[in-house]
Amino acid sequence: MSRLTRAQINGAITNKIKAAFPKVKIHSTDVKEGFSRPSFFTMLETGVNDSTMFSTYREMTCRILFFPSDRYVYKEEAYDVQDKLDVLFGLNFAVEDRTITISNARSNIIDGVLHFDFDFSFHDDASEDPMDDDNTAKMQELSISHE
Questions:
Q1: 116 within domain boundaries
Q2: What is the CATH number of the domain that holds 99?
Q3: Looking at the Swiss-Prot or TrEMBL record, what is one Pfam family this protein matches (predicted)?
Q4: What is the spatial distance between Cα 67 and Cα 47, in angstroms, rounded to a whole number?
Q5: What CA–CA distances, in Å, run from 17 to 78, 82, 103, 135, 137?
Q6: Nearest to residue 49, comparing CAs of 3, 85, 94?
Q7: In whole angstroms, what is the distance from residue 22 CA to residue 7 CA?
Q8: Could you write out the three-class secondary structure of the chain?
Q9: End-to-end C-alpha distance for the chain, whole angstroms
Q10: What pLDDT score was predicted for residue 130?
């Protein structure tokens, strides 16, 4: 089991949204103005990153913003997207060779923008670093014979 990067997690979430909304643009970067509607913005936030010698526990929140086609007449479109996101991210999502369970999802519409957030957590093997080719294996059981 390799250590998951934020880019891998964000990519898996983005791919899941793209599959459900193939005609809607998805941004993973900060765009303050000049973006087309409808569009999604995704971002990840790390709440807890607790490392021990052999493992790392991470709690994260994914924030998905949906900007409807019309900034003044948006309610029905936002509700439709909200319902679809509830199904897409209701239980879990796959990243690489793993399935990550979603612990909590919430959504609301603020100033004509749908805010959909979900929390998840997972454990990683700390002995593997995706940026390092010289990974160290965990210590195995040592048998000593006394003569």
A1: yes
A2: 3.30.2000
A3: Phage_tail_terminator_8
A4: 25
A5: 15, 12, 19, 34, 36
A6: 3
A7: 20
A8: CCCCCHHHHHHHHHHHHHHHCCCCEEECCCCCCCCCCCEEEEEEEEEEEEECCCEEEEEEEEEEEEECCCCCCCHHHHHHHHHHHHHHCCCEEEECCEEEEEEEEEEEEECCEEEEEEEEEEEEECCCCCCCCCCCCCCCCCCCCCC
A9: 40
A10: 47
* Residue 39 token pair: 């569009």
Radius of gyration of the chain (CA): 20
Q: Strand 92-95 vs strand 55-67: parallel, antiparallel, or unpaired?
A: unpaired
Q: Count Cα atoms within 13 angstroms, Cβ side, for 13.
A: 31
Is residue 39, in this structure, part of any structural domain at all? yes
Average pLDDT value over all residues in the chain: 88
> Is residue 143 situated within a structural domain?
no
Expressed as residue numbers, the domain containing 101 is 6-125
pLDDT in tens, 102-145: 999 999 999 999 999 999 999 988 655 545 555 556 667 878 88
Residue 53: inside a domain, yes or no?
Answer: yes
* pTM for the whole structure: 0.81
Handedness of CA 67, 90, 63, 15 (dihedral sign): negative
